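Re: that backbone. Tokens:
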């Protein structure tokens, strides 16, 4: 091919060879048959585009000539000569001058947008008198040329799309355009396109309802939608495979408040934020597009009295409906914007929500007759949306509010709104109170599994509702079961109760009720409750019986399950109380709450033990002081993890085991190692902490070891301090553990405190902080040993509700 062809038909020469490059160095290949065919198709396409552009331009010039003929009252030839003279005097082209003449004559939205675009663009944008080559024409020329081409091809949406792209959108950098028609069912149909591959347009010829696309978003929001990058928005649309990172614009096309479709424009590259002038230009193109899609007969948009043929047919349809119907037509302002709807017809079955006759609302404006309909998301918004999109709306039990003497009155109605041509059909059915209560009763009976009956004793006729047939498991054609026949359909054990029920109802004529087991024909047994009352005539004779059956099977089995649960709970509570009582007895038997002070050689030992606040938290704390055969004294304190009988029995096992092991004369570290073996192998699922000390009264040396327990606290003189921690794992964690030992030489009048964590532990403090508080309290205390222990126990800050044990050893 000899050159490149742009979208507007201009042909540019191919690029010259680079400097120093021999153009003859590359031999020219002879064109193939396929290449010649492609070149021919491209040439024909270019000629068609040039012809279309020329035709659109000629249409604009002819329109300007027509305006000059009307203004100058001259012949067409004189108008053409006058146009040439004006072009020579102004130094502009015929096309630009034609656009200016049309703008001045029409004073429509297109001319306003063109003027605003030029004014807003400022000095950086060429004005209407500074037209450049093809593709760089002014906004007025582009819009008017596109309008001429579109109006010339008003019946061909495909030609409209091509004219839009060639004359108006191509100069803006757009590469493709799609014109969608909005179908009342919510789907979109591709009515025209330009710039897309043929296969792409074929794939997107129909978009079903509910599929989210760029055009669907603009239709749903009824506004201009701009996407800088299509891929980033995540919305599929036509051409998204060709330009995944390109920009998109979609704007609804409509006239007179009605939306006929959507104009979608594609850019190959990301789209920068557009100025308001460009957005208004796109909206003007959408309005031009809507003119070609509007099939409604022309007329004055402000006129509300002319009855169009489709409105007349809709009135006939509304009159034939069984439900109350109202026909509405749009009321537009001089600029074509929707302002209200006129009630063109209120059917003969019309019922006003506040009781006004239909003559009072027939012919009135909707917002005048029902001003409360203008509330946000109210009836007016619904009708406006249906009129714009054509998508029908239906709702049950919608609240309608009307003003009567400035008092709002609200009623409930079922609403149906649909568009038919240029009119809207509104159907509302005001909810009847009697029907509403009957419907409410029906649902209440269904939810409560209640069936009603009435038995006429004079005629023998028995009437059941449908729910009662279902309770009995009988088909609707089966004869009802009379009250006297109930014992034959019940469990034999319930015959006596049914007999008392029938005697009270039929003989004594008193309201009565009974519960029995109904044996249905399908073999299912249901628990039924019957409530009935007698109906007396004027002579106080029994005339009929009416009442209700209720299926209480679920309630019955719930009560049975609840009774069984209560019995099981009572048994569990009694068993738990017995276990706690035994654990408490065992604990008190081993360690009384107020034990006697122990007098040993060279020391005095006092103990304070405080059990948990509730008997259900019986723990495993222990203490022990034993004078060994060697004359040494073993001191120990420990705590078994957990509560209850298991903790108490574990405490007994460990305490007695440590007593027996101490007779061997081993040191405290070895004793804890053996006790750990006992805990791990003999006491299943038990872990514990402990401190063990061996005191020699002769040398006043204390050897001690710990197994995960808090260290003892030594009070000497006016100060106190905790023993340094030594390594020692808690009892029962591992089978073989070695425990370290340390020695401390005690002085006369020293006081040694050994305790369990119930004395210091708090939920809101660390163990170190709690231990520090105990050290300070021990140092501040004075007096004899018993008074010191009582003060420590009374001032304990522990909040864990655990057992507390503290041993005080005073050296003599």
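Recovered sequence:
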């Amino acid at each position: 091919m000899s050159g490149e062809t742009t979208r507007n038909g201009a042909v540019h020469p191919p690029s010259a060879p680079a400097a120093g490059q021999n153009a003859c160095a590359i031999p020219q290949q002879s064109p193939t048959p396929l290449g010649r065919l492609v070149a021919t198709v491209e040439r024909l396409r270019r000629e068609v585009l040039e012809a279309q552009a020329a035709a659109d331009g000629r249409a604009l010039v002819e329109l300007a000539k027509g305006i000059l003929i009307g203004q100058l009252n001259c012949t067409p030839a004189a108008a053409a000569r006058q146009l040439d003279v004006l072009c020579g005097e102004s130094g502009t082209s015929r096309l630009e001058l034609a656009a200016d003449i049309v703008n001045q004559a029409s004073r429509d939205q297109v001319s306003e947008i063109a003027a605003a675009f030029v004014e807003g663009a400022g000095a950086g944008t060429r004005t209407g008198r500074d037209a450049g080559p093809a593709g760089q024409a002014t906004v007025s020329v582009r819009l008017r040329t596109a309008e001429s081409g579109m109006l010339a091809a008003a019946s061909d949406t495909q030609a409209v799309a091509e004219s839009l792209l060639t004359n108006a959108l191509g100069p803006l950098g757009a590469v493709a355009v799609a014109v969608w028609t909005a179908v009342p069912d919510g789907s979109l149909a591709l009515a025209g396109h330009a710039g897309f591959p043929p296969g792409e347009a074929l794939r997107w010829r129909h978009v079903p309802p509910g599929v989210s696309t760029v055009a669907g978003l603009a239709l749903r929001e009824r506004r201009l939608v701009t996407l800088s990058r299509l891929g980033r928005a995540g919305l599929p649309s036509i051409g998204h495979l060709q330009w995944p990172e390109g920009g998109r614009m979609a704007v609804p096309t409509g006239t007179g408040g009605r939306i006929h479709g959507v104009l979608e424009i594609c850019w190959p590259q990301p789209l920068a934020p557009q100025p308001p002038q460009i957005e208004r230009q796109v909206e003007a193109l959408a309005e031009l597009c809507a003119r070609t899609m509007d099939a409604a007969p022309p007329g004055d948009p402000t006129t509300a009295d002319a009855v169009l043929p489709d409105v007349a047919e809709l009135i006939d349809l509304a009159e034939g409906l069984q439900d109350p119907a109202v026909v509405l037509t749009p009321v537009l302002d001089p600029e074509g914007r929707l302002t209200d709807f006129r009630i063109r017809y209120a059917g003969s079955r019309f019922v006003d929500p506040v009781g006004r006759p239909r003559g009072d609302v027939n012919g009135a404006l909707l917002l005048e007759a029902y001003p409360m309909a203008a509330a946000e998301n109210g009836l007016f918004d619904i009708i406006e949306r249906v009129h714009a999109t054509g998508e029908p709306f239906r709702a049950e039990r919608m609240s309608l509010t009307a003003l009567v003497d400035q008092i709002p009155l609200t009623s409930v109605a079922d609403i149906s709104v649909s568009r038919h041509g240029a009119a809207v059909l509104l159907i509302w059915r005001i909810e009847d109170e009697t029907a509403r209560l009957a419907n409410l009763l029906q649902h209440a009976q269904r939810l409560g599994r209640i069936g009603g009956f009435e038995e006429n004793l004079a005629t023998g006729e028995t009437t059941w509702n449908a729910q009662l047939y279902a309770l009995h498991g009988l088909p609707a054609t089966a004869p009802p079961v009379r009250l006297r026949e109930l014992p034959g359909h019940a469990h034999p054990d319930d015959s006596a109760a049914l007999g008392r029920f029938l005697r009270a109802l039929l003989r004594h004529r008193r309201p009565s009720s009974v519960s029995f087991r109904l044996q249905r024909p399908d073999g299912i047994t249901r628990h039924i409750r019957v409530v009935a009352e007698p109906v007396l005539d004027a002579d106080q004779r029994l005339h009929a019986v009416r009442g209700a059956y209720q299926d209480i099977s679920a309630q019955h089995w719930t009560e049975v399950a609840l009774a069984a649960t209560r019995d099981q709970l009572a048994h569990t509570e009694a068993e738990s109380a017995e276990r706690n009582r035994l654990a408490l007895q065992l604990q008190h038997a081993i360690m009384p709450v107020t034990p006697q002070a122990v007098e040993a050689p060279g020391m005095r030992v006092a103990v304070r033990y405080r059990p948990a606040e509730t008997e259900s938290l019986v723990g495993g704390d222990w203490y022990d002081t034993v004078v060994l055969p060697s004359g040494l004294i073993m001191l120990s304190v420990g705590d078994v993890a957990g509560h209850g009988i298991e903790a108490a029995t574990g405490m007994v096992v460990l305490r007695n085991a440590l007593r027996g092991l101490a007779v061997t004369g081993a040191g405290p570290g070895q004793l804890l190692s053996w006790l750990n073996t006992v805990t791990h192998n003999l006491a299943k699922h038990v872990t514990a902490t402990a401190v063990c000390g061996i005191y020699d009264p002769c040398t006043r040396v204390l050897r001690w070891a710990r197994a995960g327990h808090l260290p003892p606290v030594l009070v000497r003189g006016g100060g106190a301090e905790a023993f340094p921690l030594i390594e020692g794992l808690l009892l029962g964690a591992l089978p073989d553990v070695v425990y370290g030992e340390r020695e401390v030489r005690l002085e006369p009048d020293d006081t040694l405190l050994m305790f369990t964590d119930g004395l210091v532990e708090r939920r809101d403090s660390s163990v170190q902080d709690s231990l520090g508080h105990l050290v300070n309290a021990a140092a501040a205390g004075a007096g004899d040993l018993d008074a010191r222990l009582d003060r420590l126990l009374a001032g304990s800050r522990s909040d864990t509700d655990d057992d507390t044990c503290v041993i005080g050893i005073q050296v003599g």
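Residues 1-28, 116-137, 295-307 have pLDDT under 50 and may be disordered. The two ends are 122 Å apart (CA to CA).
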